[in-house]
Write a structure and sequence with these properties.
This protein is α/β, with parallel strands linked by helices. The protein is built from 11 helices and 6 strands. It has 2 domains: 168 residues, Alpha/Beta hydrolase fold, catalytic domain (Rossmann fold), CATH 3.40.50.1820; 57 residues, no CATH class.
């Protein structure tokens, strides 16, 4: 039964596995597994036995938030079996490359780390406010700020955009070819993932897409609208039997 399978949840950037803590409570007793994505640091809070991306090989429902949706799609497309369904939350699948100056600063040994340590709190504060819009930043989201502002995490969020990998559209085509059910949940007032750039392509490429648009909602649905998000996920999974 799909309802008995764990949700393998890919955090966004520069997020952490703790991104899914609030949603996990809403979805209980469903089991969520939240790996550390490739290249991201393992924080002390993740524990010494933190699950790393690629380590879980059993059957699961693949779930990706924001830019974590692209990592989710790539891994799901690469598997020959074991992907019961795919769920995309506020997807950011078709990224624009970082500016030349930003790439240079991040790649500069020493200097980039110093600048990110200095500017990190401001960068993260802007991220929290923009992604929470039109809501205020929830306390559960703000408490992650110190971890999100780590220079290594911020640097990784820029570097991963430059790395080669399966294009989001091709990953979707491969998943469709396998007839894997796919759900999409997004916020109508998202200032990060616009409907035209990030939602419409999924809609066009996936026949039979399960889609839920949450009104008066933005990007950070995991924190601002966890109950509504959990309801949409539950409806999708229950409909699969």
């Amino acid at each position: 039964m799909t309802t008995d399978l764990p949700l393998l949840c890919y955090h966004g950037s520069p997020g952490t596995p703790a991104d899914f803590a609030v949603l996990e409570r809403e979805l209980a007793p469903r089991r969520l597994l939240c790996p550390v994505r490739r290249g991201y640091p393992v924080d002390e809070a993740d524990g010494p036995e933190a699950l790393l991306q690629g380590a879980f090989t059993e059957e699961a429902v693949f779930c990706g938030y924001s830019f974590g949706g692209l990592a989710c799609l790539r891994d799901a497309a690469a598997r020959d079996a074991g992907v019961a369904a795919v769920i995309l939350i506020s997807p950011y699948l078709f990224p624009k490359k970082a500016g030349l100056m930003k790439r240079a600063l991040v790649g500069a040994p020493g200097l980039g780390k110093v600048l990110l340590r200095k500017k990190g709190p401001q960068i993260v504060e802007e991220l929290l406010q923009k992604s929470s819009h039109p809501r205020d930043v929830p306390p559960s989201y703000r408490e992650l700020a110190p971890r999100l502002a780590r220079p290594e995490r911020l640097a990784r969020s820029v570097q991963e955009r430059e790395e080669p990998g399966l294009d989001g559209r091709e990953a979707l085509r491969r998943i469709v070819a396998k007839k894997t059910p796919l759900a999409l949940v997004w916020g109508a007032e998202d200032q990060t993932s616009s409907e035209a750039e990030q939602v419409a392509p999924v809609r066009e490429l996936v026949p039979g897409l399960f889609e839920r648009r949450l009104d008066s909602a933005g990007h950070a649905l995991l924190w601002t609208h966890p109950a509504e998000l959990a309801s949409a996920i539950g409806e999708f999974l229950d409909g699969m039997g």
